[in-house]
Write a structure and sequence with these properties.
The complex is a heterodimer of chains A (714) and B (448).
Chain A (H helix, E strand, L loop, with lengths): L11 E6 L7 H14 L2 E7 L7 H4 L9 E3 L1 E2 L10 H7 L10 E2 L8 E2 L5 E4 L4 E3 H8 L7 E3 L4 H4 L1 H22 L6 E7 L8 H11 L4 E7 L3 H31 L11 H9 L11 H4 L7 H7 L5 E8 L1 H5 L15 H7 L3 H6 L1 E3 L2 H4 L3 H9 L4 H23 L4 H6 L2 H24 L3 H11 L4 H14 L7 E2 L11 H18 L12 H19 L4 E2 L4 H21 L6 H9 L5 H10 L4 H6 L5 H19 L1 H16 L9 H13 L8 H29 L4
Parallel strand pairs in A: 1-10, 1-11, 2-7, 2-10, 3-7, 5-6, 11-12, 12-13
Antiparallel strand pairs in A: 4-6, 8-9, 14-15
Helix pairs in contact in A: 1-31, 7-8, 8-9, 8-11, 17-19, 17-29, 19-20, 19-29, 21-23, 21-28, 22-23, 22-24, 23-24, 23-28, 25-28, 26-28, 29-30, 29-31, 30-31
Chain B lengths: L1 E6 H9 L18 H9 L6 H35 L3 H14 L11 H16 L12 H11 L4 H9 L5 H4 L4 H20 L8 H9 L14 H8 L4 H5 L13 H15 L2 H15 L9 H16 L3 H5 L3 H4 L9 E2 L4 H12 L5 E7 L7 E7 L2 E8 L4 E8 L2 H19 L6 E2 L7 E6 L1
Parallel strand pairs in B: 2-7, 6-8
Antiparallel strand pairs in B: 1-5, 3-4, 5-6
Helix pairs in contact in B: 3-4, 3-5, 5-9, 5-18, 6-9, 7-15, 9-15, 9-18, 10-14, 11-13, 14-15, 15-18
Classes of the chains: A alpha/beta (714), B alpha/beta (448).
């Protein structure tokens, strides 16, 4: 098999392969990429499993969204992901130049890579209109088209050309990564299952590079056939490496004494004889051309396969991993087996350390069941924490029962109780957070306070409102420096707040845009109630004072008017609290549109008169702060309960799992900030997320060992 | 006595035992194949199922017994060609169709290259392999051939070609050190196999022209079936293939002023009378069509492999040009400088020898009247009855090629042709294939 022409070689190229599909190659490749990135490598993952999972789509998962960068054209973020098969079909096979990687945004065809993340170049032999539509934010019926003929999978020439493309992309990435002179470069190939397609070419290429740079990660399951197939694959790989090594010794000795060349050595011997180069950097077989005195590790590598090939076992039942159920390898491997050595190492314990659990039945369980398991945990410290959280949750429930489970009614009727309710919810969460903080999870508490704390809604909004008002002729806040929260409530503001909802509704009904009259009363009440509740909480704050004028009402009425018009334009037929929350959390308005809207609101003439100093951008910020805060207020008690669940989840099992918390931030954002997930759905999703996070953690532990075995370190 | 027996069953059992794998030591493709040209060549003006249809025609015409022999061998050839001669897959449908539609003569009726070429490849591998004959000098055939390449004056043109292609490694080009021997053994076996499995491409060479039509606008060199000798020389005169027609001289060798005229006459005649030269030109041309040239990664040894294989494809069928029209009158060849010898051209010699040996399992046609009617007949393809060919070399240097034919009719037919065949190829002093460098003093051909 011909070697792809290589000029610049990465410090590390890892071929992730398996004999069966669906054993977790892509996950292993991405986890390995993340580990190498953390070790300071510039990492490119090439998805060569062209009929399998497209690694680029995985990047949308909350687990990976902050870790992966999907390679796109450097011109902008909204271009579709680069598809390796399209590069092959429409570039290499069309005789056109392959675009270069670039670490900077630029016009043209260059492909942007982010060296701070794991770069993923996806592949997909079938293109579906659904996928394309998804990239454009559309929904269409799914139809699949094959980009390349199956020849790409089985035809020798196509395989060689695909290998050529991979080689060029690798060289391009090394060039792009050279902008950071200290960075080592790693390329990870997520290969197709089985020994088909490009696999023979990549095996040949990597063994050419030598075991220091060319590594193999075999992913297997416990399936006997799979283990046997991997056994043969590893033997073949080791045979290839050692054959090349021995041939190179024959080649070096051939000049000085009479040696015989075995038939299976002829090919490599001939390549050694005909591909010499004066420059080691340009010599594709440099590793083998060195004399033993210059290359003392050569024989070592040949004798110790663990220096360049590693195996992990995925999808293992938990009972096997924990040792409760024994799995006997002896009947599977006949005689000596390199693969068995890789798996078992020093004994049964090592063997289990190579395993990764993936109990799918657990991932579908609900939160309650998990919590019950936690209560049986022997760790006293954990018991105390869980008890503390339980108490907080009971307190929260009693708080909610005093008023209403849903904050909607409070938003509409009793603003004073709303303030009290919010304040008590804050206390409960703060108390729970203190307990968690005491247990050493300060980073988690900080994250809750910074991102999701219910009590942060009002102060955050107040600061935006204050800035908005101070930039205009409207009355401004007057912060009061007092430690007392009880006596200094702004009576004028309180009076204003009592009538605000009615007044903004009256003003908003005067919108002359067609369609707004059909907005149902429930939605209108929901939006106006949340807005007036927000205004009340902000303006009647005990710690601030302001003179209320009618123009302030108009400012809130303007917000409600824009909201109603966008609601109509969104074409939402039926409203629900979650639907309104989702709408509000994603709301924004462009500067141009806002100017146009404000000019069309005749009923806001007086506001516009006073607000002529307000820039569109100011109002845009104000509008966005209103909608975000409205969305949070509608169901803040449920958010609080979710936060308690999140704390419990994070503490589930052993304490060190707190390190997994970053994985849960995606789902917390979806529930609390973006409102993409309802509180009812959240426990199940969180459970699944946690299980998957554990799964990744297991990968990380094993892969760290693999890298240590390979001698790859920071 | 060293005896080597060749037969289809031996080949088939050898394949089952993992023997006779096509050599790939030179890391094919020999040329860096241009994907754009390849794709254009494969798609323009063709139907996707041409090959399947041609195979189906082959099965219908020959029947399952013969097809079951030919199909796997041709499949192996097709697989090998993917990297050694990439354009082959595009011409194979026409090669097969031509094979079974062309009327050669009443005795043979058709061509059979789908079987004959792979079997020649097998013979070459066996001749040059560990099971090959041991020569009177005690060496293997492969070792003698490599020795000739490395040290014979007659093969100076080969070394000159490599040198001028940029191959300067004195370890490999020079003396007989172990490195050079290893390289040349691998090289020679592979080049011989390539030449053998594609040696009869020249029959319907109009497909070279047709293929070119598919490359319209792709800047590929034109080749026409009706090209004159001078036009062919203009296109290919600088290639290694024409060294053979100039007596295997190096480029620096002096030659008479009339030489060009003589070569032109030979080419003219070879174009009309042989399939060797058209085959070589088609082989070169189709390789030229899909390669990028010059290519920085192109190895001179790969170039030599293709160019020398073309020489062998041409020379395996130059026996009639060598003898010329007047040979029957004088008993002396008209163009003696074309005589094949292991000293000057071991590659062509080995391919020609394999072509002579390959007689076993070739198909023969029988005719049967349809329901007693005289005008309509049914054709039946079956083996010609030749089970094997034995290569028997005794210690005195006498070689016997013994064809073992079961069918008495075919045995008689072969026997009637043997004398002429032996005279043309192996007669003392003037036989086209000079085997004396192998220590073979005389060659007998017999039927049993």
């Amino acid at each position: 098999m011909s070697k792809p022409h290589s000029q610049k070689t990465p410090d590390l190229i890892v071929n992730v392969e398996s004999r069966k599909g669906g054993v977790g190659k892509t996950t292993a490749a991405l986890c390995l990429g993340r580990l190498l990135r953390r070790k300071g490598y510039a990492v490119l993952v090439l998805d060569l499993d062209i009929t399998g999972t497209n690694a680029a789509y995985i990047a949308r998962s909350p687990f990976w969204i902050n870790e992966l960068h999907v390679v796109r054209e450097a011109v902008g973020d909204d271009t579709p992901p680069i598809n390796l098969i399209r590069l092959f079909d429409q570039r290499l096979m069309a005789g056109k130049a392959i675009p270069e990687f670039s670490t900077k945004r630029m016009p043209g065809e260059a492909m942007f890579v982010d060296l701070a993340k794991v770069n993923v170049l996806g592949s997909q032999i079938y293109t579906t209109t659904t996928n394309d539509a998804h990239n454009r934010g559309e929904t269409q019926n799914k139809t699949a088209t094959c980009i390349e003929r199956p020849g790409i999978l089985f035809d020798d020439l196509h395989t060689l050309w695909l290998a050529e493309l991979v080689s060029r992309l690798t060289n391009n990435f090394v060039r792009a990564a050279s902008s950071d002179q200290n960075a080592k470069v790693a390329v990870i190939m997520d290969n197709s299952p089985g020994f088909v397609g490009i696999a023979p070419a990549t095996n040949d290429w990597l063994t050419d590079l030598g075991p220091q740079a060319g590594k193999f990660l075999i992913v297997t399951s416990l399936d006997v056939q799979d283990l046997r197939a991997c056994d043969r694959a590893v033997s073949a790989l080791h045979g290839l490496y050692t054959s090349k090594w021995r041939t190179s010794r024959v080649f070096i000795e051939a000049g000085s004494r009479d040696v015989s060349i075995a038939k299976d050595q002829e090919s490599f011997f001939l390549r050694l004889a005909t591909t010499a180069s004066d420059s080691p950097a340009d010599d594709p077989l440099f590793f083998y051309r060195q004399h033993e005195v210059h290359n003392p590790e050569g024989q070592l590598f040949a004798e110790h396969p663990s220096k360049y090939v590693a195996a992990i076992v995925n999808r293992v039942p938990r009972a096997v991993k924990t040792g409760r159920l024994a799995y006997d390898l002896r009947p599977i491997f006949d005689g000596e087996s390199i693969f068995r050595e890789l798996l078992v190492g020093n004994g049964e314990k090592d063997w289990r350390k190579r395993m990764i659990c993936y109990d799918e039945y657990i991932e579908n369980q609900f939160l309650l069941e998990s919590l019950q398991r936690n209560r049986r945990h022997s760790d006293r410290r954990l018991h105390r924490l869980i008890d503390s959280l339980d108490m907080a949750e009971r307190e929260l429930q009693s708080t909610a029962l005093e008023g209403a489970d849903n904050a909607l009614s409070l938003l509409e009727t009793d603003h004073e109780r709303l303030r009290t309710q919010l304040s008590r919810v804050n206390e409960v969460i703060s108390s729970a957070c203190r307990a968690v903080d005491d247990a050493g999870f300060g980073h988690l508490v900080r994250l809750i306070h910074d991102e999701w704390f219910p009590g942060s809604v009002v102060p955050d909004f107040q600061s935006v409102l204050s800035r908005f008002l101070s930039d205009t002729d409207l009355p401004t806040f007057e912060p009061i420096s007092s430690n007392s929260d009880t006596d200094l409530v702004n009576q004028e503001a309180r009076e204003f707040a009592k009538n605000l909802k009615k007044r903004v509704l009256v003003e908003s009904r005067q919108i002359d845009m067609p369609g707004t009259e059909i907005v149902d009363e429930k939605t209108r009440d929901l939006l106006a109630g949340a807005l007036s509740g927000l205004a009340c909480l902000a303006l009647t704050s005990p710690s601030s004072r302001t003179n209320i004028r009618p123009q302030v009402t108009s400012a809130f009425a303007a917000v409600l008017s824009v909201e109603l018009m966008h609601w109509v334009e969104a074409g939402v037929e039926r409203s629900s609290p979650l639907g309104v929350q989702q709408f509000l959390s994603q709301e924004s308005v462009s500067t141009t549109e806002l100017r146009r809207r404000l000019e069309s609101f005749q009923h806001l003439r007086s506001f516009r008169l006073y607000a002529r100093e307000i820039t569109d951008a100011d109002f845009g910020r104000f509008y966005k702060a209103c909608t975000r805060a409205q969305a949070r207020l509608i169901d803040f008690a449920a958010d609080a309960r979710f936060l308690l669940q999140l704390l419990s989840f994070t503490l589930e099992g052993e304490l060190e799992k707190g390190a997994l918390f970053p994985f849960l931030s995606g789902i917390a954002d979806d529930v609390i900030l973006h409102k993409r997930v309802s509180h009812e759905e959240a426990p199940a999703k969180m459970s699944k997320t946690l299980r998957t996070a554990e799964y990744f953690r297991d990968f990380d532990i094993i892969l760290k060992k693999v890298l240590a075995d390979w001698g790859v370190d920071a | 006595m060293s005896t080597v027996r060749f037969s289809l069953s031996d080949y088939q059992s050898g394949i089952s035992a993992g023997m006779y794998a096509p050599p790939e030591a030179l890391c094919p493709p020999y040329y860096e194949v241009d994907p754009v040209l390849y794709r254009k060549l494969g798609t323009a003006g063709r139907r996707g199922d041409d090959l399947r249809r041609a195979m189906e025609e082959l099965r219908k015409r020959t029947g399952p017994e013969y097809f079951d022999n030919a199909y796997p061998l041709q499949a192996r050839t097709l697989d090998y060609s993917a990297r050694s001669f990439p354009a082959y897959r595009f011409i194979l449908p026409e090669v097969m169709t031509e094979d079974w539609l062309a009327i050669v003569d009443w005795g043979k009726f058709h061509r059979d290259h789908v079987l004959h070429q792979p079997l020649c490849g097998y013979i070459v591998l066996k001749l040059l392999g560990p099971d090959g004959p041991v020569l009177p000098c005690g060496k293997t055939l492969l070792d003698v051939c490599v020795d000739r390449i490395l040290s014979s004056d007659g093969t100076a043109y080969v070394r000159e070609f490599l040198s001028k292609s940029g191959f300067q490694d004195s370890r490999i080009l020079g003396a007989q050190n172990p490195t050079a021997l290893g390289v040349w053994r691998a090289f020679f076996r592979e080049a011989a196999y390539v030449a053998a499995v594609f040696h009869d491409l020249g029959y319907p060479w109009h497909y070279a022209e047709r293929m070119h039509a598919n490359l319209d606008g792709m800047n590929a060199p034109a080749i026409k079936q009706n090209r004159s000798a001078s036009q062919v020389l203009e296109l290919f005169g600088h290639r290694l293939v024409f060294h053979a027609l100039q007596g295997y001289q190096t480029q620096d060798s002096p030659c008479p002023s009339t030489w060009r005229e003589r070569v032109t006459r030979i080419v003219d005649r070879a174009l009309a009378k042989t399939h060797g030269l058209p085959g070589a030109l088609g082989f070169l041309h189709l390789n030229d069509c899909v390669r990028r040239y010059p290519h920085p990664a192109q190895l001179p040894l790969k170039l030599l492999c293709v160019e020398w294989a073309a020489v062998a494809i041409m020379m395996h069928d130059m026996v009639d040009i060598y003898w010329g029209d007047k040979a029957n009158d004088t008993g002396v060849p008209e163009n003696p400088f074309l005589r094949l010898s292991f000293d000057k051209d071991p590659l062509s010699a080995i391919v020609t020898l394999a072509d002579v040996i390959q007689e076993f399992s070739r198909p023969a046609v029988t005719y049967a009247a349809v329901d007693g009617q005289r005008e309509e007949v049914i054709l039946k393809y079956k083996s010609n009855g030749c089970l094997s060919t034995a290569f028997e070399l005794d210690s005195s240097g006498e070689l016997t090629l013994r064809y073992e034919i079961r069918n008495s009719e075919m045995r008689a037919l072969k026997r009637s042709r043997l004398a002429d065949e032996r005279r043309k190829y192996f007669c003392d002093n003037y036989g086209y294939l000079n085997m004396s460098e192998l220590g073979i003093s005389s060659v007998r051909m017999s039927v049993s």
